[in-house]
Amino acid sequence: MPQTVRAEVITIGDEILFGQITDTNTQWISTELTTLGIRTVRKTSVGDEAGVILDALREAAARADVVIITGGLGPTKDDITKKTLCQFFNVGMVRNQQALELVTGFFEKRGREMTDLNRGQADLPENAEYVQNDWGTAPGMWFDENDTVYISLPGVPFEMKSLMTNRFLPKLKERFDLPVIRHKMIRTIGVGESFLAEKIEAWEDALPPHIRLAYLPSFGQVKLRLTATGADNEQLGRELDAEVAKIMPLIQANVYGFDGDEIENVVIKLLKEKNLMLGVAESCTGGQVAATLTKVPGVSAVFAGGVVAYSNEVKHIALGVNPDTLAEFGAVSEPTVCEMAEGVRIMLGTDVGIATSGIAGPDGGTPDKPVGTIWIACATDHGTVARHLKLGQYREQNITLTTNYVLELLRQQLKIMYNA
């Protein structure tokens, strides 16, 4: 029977704790471990102090079958991981000939002088199995002590990823009889987490014990992640598909995609399928809608361009918004945002136009139109549809939410138009 294998990831470095760099290693490692069938139970970041590193190692050893350490393997005095591992295992340091040859060749190839500090990269705890790093001089190390595997990796992301992919993941697969862990993601938009939980409560309660549900909320979206654990990958896939089929009638209206789908990818795919061109008019989002769309490769096939019409003058001159509309209803209003969507469609000669206008904050609000008052619109041959959003006080959050909601409005209208 496959065994349950638990992992802990420890990142070492003051620069992470000080916020000087972002730790992307643990996310990548956890994703790869999950694919392999190993469950990450904790992630810990510690500074360059032997005492706290030792505490983290002892705690991890008590609850994990695999302990993965990144960082602290450089040649300078602040890189203390190897020395601390010697303390942890109560062993001495020895010079590894294979590692020394690699370090020597690394410097000779580049015509650089090698110092004693560089030679010290080849010194390893005597119980370590040396694992060659093809991209740098910091060694990879494998320890198998007291039924726990310890892996020590350099903190440089591309070096770490190379070692994990080519060396350590295959070794872990050989070392453990691993279960299959399979995920299915259902992506929803425009519905709150608690409301969604109430709608699917009976379905969730009926899930079999080996399938777990997690709610992953973000800006205007909630991802439902189903995780199935077992021995047969194909069987788990069939079971996950069956559970998705059961839940879909309950939440169909709010589901925009699955697994790796993003809302921008979904709308671009729909536009391509229907051979439609899109134009974007933005006020409060300041170009974020266009920026989000243009992250997707191949978007030029369906995206003509956009206009950031922040002032009323630009709304009138560039998009043709009637001055009387602006005077009577204001820039943040249904009539104005509709004329913006229609105007950009005419200006760029596109099949579809979408628009945003609102008060993103933190100031600019009035009693009638407080911060977070937003209007979005979508214009097509079938007419123009607008939506009123009542968001919060935080500018960046409002801009991101508006971007997601206007793309969802576009998706809805395309679905209605083409019964897709």
Automatic annotation (TrEMBL):
<comment type="similarity">
    <text>Belongs to the CinA family.</text>
</comment>
<dbReference type="InterPro" id="IPR008136">
    <property type="entry name" value="CinA_C"/>
</dbReference>
<dbReference type="Pfam" id="PF02464">
    <property type="entry name" value="CinA"/>
</dbReference>
<dbReference type="Pfam" id="PF00994">
    <property type="entry name" value="MoCF_biosynth"/>
</dbReference>
<dbReference type="Pfam" id="PF18146">
    <property type="entry name" value="CinA_KH"/>
</dbReference>
<feature type="domain" description="MoaB/Mog">
    <location>
        <begin position="8"/>
        <end position="175"/>
    </location>
</feature>
<dbReference type="InterPro" id="IPR050101">
    <property type="entry name" value="CinA"/>
</dbReference>
<protein>
    <recommendedName>
        <fullName>CinA-like protein</fullName>
    </recommendedName>
</protein>
<dbReference type="InterPro" id="IPR008135">
    <property type="entry name" value="Competence-induced_CinA"/>
</dbReference>
<dbReference type="InterPro" id="IPR001453">
    <property type="entry name" value="MoaB/Mog_dom"/>
</dbReference>
<dbReference type="InterPro" id="IPR036425">
    <property type="entry name" value="MoaB/Mog-like_dom_sf"/>
</dbReference>
<dbReference type="InterPro" id="IPR036653">
    <property type="entry name" value="CinA-like_C"/>
</dbReference>
<dbReference type="InterPro" id="IPR041424">
    <property type="entry name" value="CinA_KH"/>
</dbReference>
